[in-house]
Amino acid sequence: MKTRKPFNTRWRLSALAVVLLVTSCDLFTNVDNMFDPEHPDFRNPETFIISGPSDGEIVQSNTVVFSWIHADSTYHIDTLSTTNIAGRIEFSYRLTGRDWSEWQSGESLWYSPYTHWLYDESTGIHTLTLGPLADGPQLFEIRMKYPTEVFEYNWPMRSFTIDAMEGPALMVSPMQTYIDSGAAFYAHARVLDAVDLMGVNLKLQYDPTMLSIREYSLFDDSLDFLLQSYADYINDFTFITNDTLTGLFELSIGIAGGNFTGVSGSGALIQFTFDHIGERGNTAIEVLDESTLRDINNTTTLNATGDGHVTVW
């Protein structure tokens, strides 16, 4: 017996080590598999918007702030765990007329250049500041995915209206754009709350060392808006110049119709395709003070202007 006891002890110790190893591996696997549908604690991706404009709300500011978190507390911050489940969940958002943003997790935001999108590692809450936003209807959407590529397909959205600028006004829309270096983006100039509009002189200033206008056009929405006056000769009284050396773009439109009916309301004037050509950083597409809106009495009615702001990562 004495000669076999050490062997028995060694066998028991080895068996215990195997059990501990298997158990620890199972625990590690289970934690990692919280994003796996086979895990007993798995919950479907579901984003819960904590704060921000509500559906149908009229916001009298051109900046809004949204915050959100996973709807199920199983995926919230656990101070007793070191797995950082909440920080590994990824989100993507979009606004009306824009592409989806790139996917970002709480962990990736720690190292990103974003200042408008923040993550609180103590609560698991994401906070997004959007603005300046153009006056008019806006639709915000936010969706989630897990690291295992399990997607949220019924994501939440909020429809609201920005009413921050007192017209008549000329503005660049969108008023805030985020792009990658070397990328292209669309923008357009808009008239806001015009009354009996009969003429426009729009002067835009952009930095030609950072941005280049690839093309511009009076697109369908522009013509639909301007032709409310039953004008016959819009194209004959439209003059456009673009000085690529100084970055000065000028558009003049005379709305000529037999009954001299002016245009009232809000609408697009012209659409641009811009290319980023220079250094990264922040730049603006400015509506210069020399710009004018004139009514049927040839009176200047322009009350406000709104610039476009571009951030290049």
What does it look like?
- By secondary structure, the chain is mainly beta.
- It folds into 3 domains: 5-35; 47-162, Immunoglobulins (Immunoglobulin-like); 169-312, Immunoglobulin-like.
- It has helices spanning 5-32, 85-88, 106-109, 220-226; strands at residues 47-51, 58-59, 64-70, 90-95, 104-105, 117-120, 125-130, 136-145, 157-162, 169-173, 176-179, 184-205, 211-217, 238-243, 248-254, 263-276, 281-287, 292-295, 304-306, 308-312.
- Strands 10, 11, 12, 13, 14, 15, 16, 17, 18, 19 and 20 form an 11-stranded mixed β-sheet that branches.
- The longest helix is centred in the first third of the chain and has 28 residues, at 5-32.
- It starts with a helix and ends with a strand.
**Helix-and-strand structural type:** mainly beta
Would you list the SSEs in sequence order as H and E? HEEEHEEHEEEEEEEEHEEEEEEE
CATH class of the largest domain: Mainly Beta
Largest sheet: 11 strands, mixed
Relative strand content = 35-45%
Q: Which second-level CATH architecture of the largest domain applies? A: Sandwich
- Whole-number count of domains: 3
| Cα-based radius of gyration, to the nearest Å | 28 Å
**Average pLDDT rating:** 86
Q: What would the principal axes of the Cα set say about the shape?
A: elongated
Question: What is the terminal-to-terminal distance?
Answer: 75 Å
By CATH, the topology of the largest domain is Immunoglobulin-like
Number of helices: 4
Segments where pLDDT lies below 50 for 5+ residues?
1-31
In total, the number of strands is 20
Q: Residue share in helices?
A: 10-25%
